[in-house]
Amino acid sequence: MKLGTLLLRNAAIGLSQLEAALRNQVLYGGRLGTNLVELGFIDLELLSSYLSELTGFPIATPTLLDGADRALLDLLGGDDAHRLRAVPIGALGEARDQVAVAMVDPSDGRAIEALGARLGATVAPHVVPELRALYYLERHFGMPRRARFIRTSRSGSEPDPLDERRRSQPAGGIAMPPTLTLEPRRRRTPSQLSIAHEVPTALSYGAACERIDTAPNREQIADTFVDFAKGRCDALVVLLIRDGNALGWRGYVAPPHHPSRPFEELSLPLGGASALQAAHDGNQVFVGPPPAPAKPVEGALWAALGAEPPPTEVVVVPILVKQRAVNLVYAHTLGGTPPHALVTELRDLALRAQSSYARLIRQTRSS
Hints:
Layout: H1 3-9, H2 15-28, H3 32-38, H4 44-55, H5 62-66, H6 70-76, H7 78-84, E1 86-92, E2 98-103, H8 109-119, E3 122-127, H9 130-141, H10 205-213, H11 218-229, E4 235-242, E5 245-253, E6 267-269, H12 275-282, E7 286-288, H13 296-305, E8 314-321, E9 324-332, H14 340-366
Parallel strand pairs: 2-3
Antiparallel strand pairs: 1-2, 4-5, 4-9, 5-6, 7-8, 8-9
Helix pairs in contact: 2-3, 2-14, 10-11, 10-14
């Protein structure tokens, strides 16, 4: 039995709520339970009890996770813990040859085998919701959650440090840098011009269209934009729109430049004047120089992308679902205006992505 079926059978949610969560899962990723909690349809405690009933494994409670054995955490290590979505809790019994481990998917045999080899003990899986697991992975190992799994506080409120869905960060996204002082524009040398043409084109336009039209999941849609960017532009980022912010999802930066931080950690506010805000609010392609003279949002993005010198013009293409932007595709070339062909093809790929999202949402409803 699936989680959604179990929740419906027990009247924990309604059909419209399940459909809304499935739609969000298609658009934003994460497990079904994560999306149900984020939409406010159930809480983490109720989700935990149903996951335990569904899988047959005991619950990894916050009390158990708070008291996780430091020696076991260090033995597993942060990289493997994140990869396996698992948090060692503690040894069981006097022999201590069995270890309780909180797992997002406690039925994953390969993960259990890998954990047993790493910890040198038999693994006793405990089930834990994805949101709670990510919170404790960050807390115990200091490895930040992706921006997609963090909900920012509402304006005027103080973030609760114990809220597993939030982090103590400013409402509305990242803290903005101080106002920039504009210096006279320097003439660019040949070495400063766009280097996108030096990278071989990885994917033809026709192949990109086919990949998006037949995409079995959201990841292939985003990966197609990234592959299409290679050889055509100096940087491209696919952003998720959530809580009034543009969150990093997938991206590409042409060598020799490289991003200064993982794309998944990007969080840019959509308030104020920016190319991102213009494309989002207008539901149409933005091409040209950023609208704000100081370019605070674009400046933060360029710093994250390692764009030096910064581009003079950018392109931002929205991907819409029910006339609402769910993604923004940002791109730039360092040599000047983005080519007309690039803008046209990105716009057409965005329209195809829109149709594919609708198809994937219909498929989840019928499955």
